[in-house]
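User: what does the whole thing look like in 3D?
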Amino acid sequence: MLKQRPYLIEFLTAAGLVVAPFVLPWLGFAPNTVNRILVWGLFGLGFDILFGFTGLLSFGQSAFYGTGGFVAAWLLTRAGFPNVVLALVVGMIAAAAAGYLIGLIALRRTGIYFAMITVAIAEVFFFVEFNPLSDFTGGENGLPGVPTPSFNLGFTTLHFTTGWSLYQFLALCYFIGVVIALRIVRSPVGAVFSAIRDNPLRATAVGHNIHGYKLTAFVIAAAYAGFAGGLLGVLQAFMPPDAFTFDTSGQLVMQTAIGGRGTLFGPLVGAAVWLSLQDFLQAALGLGAAWKLVLGLVFVLLVCFLRRGIIGGLADLYGLLTGQRGAREPGESEPEAVAGASAPHATAAAPTPVRARPAGNPTGPILQAKGLTKRYGGLLANSDIDFTVNHGELRGIIGPNGAGKSTFFKMLTCEVHPTSGTIMFEGRDITGMNVTDVCQLGLTKSYQVNQLFAGLTVRENLVIAALSGLRGKFKLDLFRSIDSIPGLSERVQHTLELVNLTSRPDTPVSELAYGEKRRLEIGLALATSPSLLLLDEPLAGMSPRERVETVKLLKSISQGRTMIIIDHDMDALFELAERVTVLQEGRVLVEGTPEEIKNNSTVQEAYLGGVHGVLAA
Amino acid sequence: MINWPNFISQLFNGLALGALLALISSGLTIIYGTLGVLNLAHGAMFMIGGYAGYVAYSYTGSFILAVIAGSLFVMLLGVAMERIIIRHFYHRPHEDQLLVTFGLGICFVEIVRLIFTSQSQVVPPPALLQGITSLGFLFYPTYRLAVVGIVAVALGGLFLILYRTRLGMIVRAGIEDSVMVDSLGINVYRVFMIVFGIGAMAAGFAGIINAPVVSLTPGVGDDILVETFVVVVIGGVGSFPGAILGGLIAGEIISITSMFNPGYAYVMLFAAMTLVLVLRPHGLLGTQGRE
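Assistant: Here's the predicted 3D structure for the full assembly of 908 residues, as structure tokens:
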């Protein structure tokens, strides 16, 4: 929705803001109400980046709203600061700084912990404003006398005072806010934000430092909140202490959910609904204090039945009316999927030259594990495993269920740390490193159970994975267009070809058939451009036909690449692998060429419990 | 110079507050631990317990009946809430659960405000526990002393339910691994309903017990909810002993800081929470499980 023609949304926003003063009075909106809606909308832009795009639900945004507001108001009323806009910017910076510090603490945990911590922190800010800092903030009286902005242009001075006059200033601020927010959302950082929302575990595994990005989103939200808080003081000519209350945070959350999260304009729509309903219920219906109950009920109903809020609901309705959402039914998507799976494959597999890492074509070991042991309490999952893989090799690992294969992979990719032993990758000791850094070094895996970014399209999934290889684990290119990154579209296209998904780049992951999801899973790992790729049961759950296709695919991927594959499908593995390692009960049983393994009596015994031996004899 | 009688009476205040927080938090934490839902309407449950008790008291004049009515009403409200709304949210993301319980909390508060107005209501302590008791070196309100005892009994009851009954075993197993419990052929959804009822009842019971200490207003649950969060973060989510330990710590921090400057009570509470988050991210008695 946010990616149509360039600058279309910016243009529509500007047009809407220009037209609003001429239209809204006819609909019964007072200018002051419109101005308040704009301030809430600006506040919500940052919050939507945090909640709607990054998936972090904070109930503590009042802390930054109040901080920015009071810093700006204090500068203007007590410190004799002459320039309103500069004071607003200083307030914004103060709020962002507070956001950085608070983010360091609150982001130590995720999910409900994060929500609880933000609530508690906002409450602290509220009390600090009232007591220890009341000399600066006026305590419960707030700070009266906040001036309105004026600009001296030399030949004339522009004053923005109240009503529609102030609206012009607020509308300009909101417009700039929208432009910046759109840039952020469309930047590589924005792509990583949505990856964090959809699957933080995989976002980490494909090599993004998600903690850094979460902190970034938190600071962005705090900065927007701080600027909006300053505008609140300007709007009311008074900085009210209730900016700091929990109700402020709560109202923001509710407005965002009512309007539609993840849309940027949801908070504005939500605020318009909220404030106009409040006026309407209080004034027209004479409901008095009951307005909040009505709004609360509306909110609960929306959360229950219209998950994506008003904007999301309208988008679905529009889609329904224009009949664009036919692909929802699985019956429609699957035949197409099967057809797409087999037809273009033969052409895609052969001509794709695989680029290895620029290091050239070295020989010798790429990975060396020595004495790897993993204990879970009393359970010994892996015991004293020595394991070496050479550059360019395709190694298979087999073993009965519970042999410790997956644990072994998790240790190699540093998802879990070994109890003892060391892992060397390309001559570097990676024992104890984290999964993100290891992925950045060129070692990653595809998961046994699909770990995709389920809310995004195939292409967006691959873009996220490819970005980590092209820009490192953390980079603040907030204003860069995602299309301007050199090599990105080539790499995504190349990966699409490798995993044979060129026909469906813009399909949402939720509409893919199982086999396609499985290939995308491998594609995610491939797009990070690993020099060593681990595949954990790539054939699991596939039909015989899909297996044949996937084995072909794995063969084409393996050219010029080092891979280790775990699977239960021995025929496939013996066909693919040059050497096979057999694990049993956490130890290496034997290692050798497929032929050697097939004819090894201990392996036969491990798998067939000795029956085979008896039969042979 | 510290005024010792004053200091000790603050310690007792902290104990009473801490015990209440422990009870409310254990309700919140067993619901979260078992159902995976953080109930943001928990503070409202606390408030409604007080009001339900207040209604019963104004009709009967009996404090005991008020306590029973308050607890039972909130338990039923909890069960109804779980049946009608919460159960549709088990498979939806955490954020949606937070949003819906937050909205319900607001609705509850506003309904109570509509019926009883924002004016504060008073429930006097039972005749037997009125007045003050001499502890030799200081005089202390009898009812506040009694609160510690009453809440200790309630926590003991909760302990017995959790650690000595079949239901409790299922609940504790569910906190460890709800998928496993589900696959053992236990009807987890019925257990969820009961747990939600018990958890809500803990808050409602605390609400009516607390009513004689502070006056009742529709917003009385809001601050309590925030304090409860801190307690749960300090103690460890899903941990019953953690909730008790965290409650006592939080109660004492608030009381003792208030003796010097009430404005810093929350700052100190927050500092303690930060310290715990830095040193033991999963809480003092929490385990590295659910997130």
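In plain terms: The mean pLDDT of chain B is 87. The radius of gyration of chain B is 19 Å.
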